[in-house]
Predict the 3D structure of the following.
Amino acid sequence: QVQLQESGPGLVKPSETLSLTCAVSDYSISSGYYWGWIRQPPGKGLEWIGTIHHSGSTYYNPSLKSRVTISVDTSKSQFSLKLSSVTAADTAVYYCARPRGYSYGDAFDIWGQGTMVTVSS
Amino acid sequence: EIVLTQSPGTLSLSPGERATLSCRASQSVSSSYLAWYQQKPGQAPRLLVYGASSRATGIPDRFSGSGSGTDFTLTISRLEPEDFAVYYCQQYGSSPLTFGQGTKVEIK
């Protein structure tokens, strides 16, 4: 069973860059599928950030596109999220997740446990 | 961007009762690409239904999804104690992928 695990700093200063990594286990990331990031501010709903294919093709939410970079490292079986110029509004639980089918636009059937990132000085 | 509006915001029911949750889209969802998730406090969302009506692996048959176009419904036929949670719908027919704001199903 594929497992996802997020890691990264829990505290980021305003205007800096948030960086998170999602480690994929029990599956070779280069074998296929897309890999995504979703976030959830405290007490609020879910927001799709973006998705990457193992080949490197990316799809971003236009509301975040100017600040987001998602990359993949197949040799380490992991993919990463960078969000620049963060503000308090970027405080959220960040989840990595896998779409169930062979498309970036699909329901997410496998999720990491999530990691809380707080933006504060 | 397709906006999903879920109703009601909170549903207060007793175990054994039937729950009916609504998700309305601001425009038609392509090919019924609509999913439902369950989320409990401190946990990641869990996929329940995809394609508007197909249950995900391991999901009990008391959960059923229906609808097309702009109106979708998740029905829980008989609430079990573990079903009290927040439920989200998501459309994946067009970019950006979007989620509804959630419906909380609480114990009455």
The first strand of chain A starts at residue 3 and ends at 7. The interface with chain B takes residues 45-48, 59, 61-63, 95, 97, 99-100, 105-109, 111-114 of chain A (CB under 8 Å). The radius of gyration of chain A is 13 Å.
